[in-house]
Give the backbone structure.
Amino acid sequence: MTKKLSWKLPLFLLLLPASALAQVPLPTGSGPSISASLGYSYMSMPIPSATRIDMNGAAASVSVDFRSRFGAKIDVDYDRTANVFGTGRHSDVLTYMLGPLFYPMRNDRWTVYLQALAGGSRVTGVVPNGTNGFDTAYTQGLAWAFGGGIERRISPSFAIRTEFDYLHTTFTDSTAAFRGQNDLRLTGSLVYSWAWHWQGRHDGRRF
């Protein structure tokens, strides 16, 4: 009787940790946090040899946060104004950029971020021609922006975002020469966020 217990007891102790480990659920693999935004855009654009004009439009973006402090963003913005200088013609600016994000502050309610974006732009509109008239111009070129924003979370999935950028695009002057121009852009957006898991599940919470 004693000999039988002598080999059964070590075997039981050996299998006990393995049995307990098998009952512990394995952690679910997790991926990045993804946000999509859509909202209103305001831009103050300078006209070479003239003055600034106010433009209104729409802005959309998709951002991916790989870590708590860093992410990346794709940004598309379109702004337009009609009847520039009473000519009956319109001006518009389309930008499409991407770049990194940095989050100096983030909690359950507030998120503050900085961004540096680069890409392309298409600018159309009117420009003084030096003979008391206006010409229609069309320019495609590089665009970049530096700025940041703040988000206020209103639910686990939704937030309100306000963003301000110093935007650089390209337009032509009265001599038809390409000129860099510095625009000011303000956007207000509704943001939807969700967290993605490698095993295919997702929820509306950020990490």
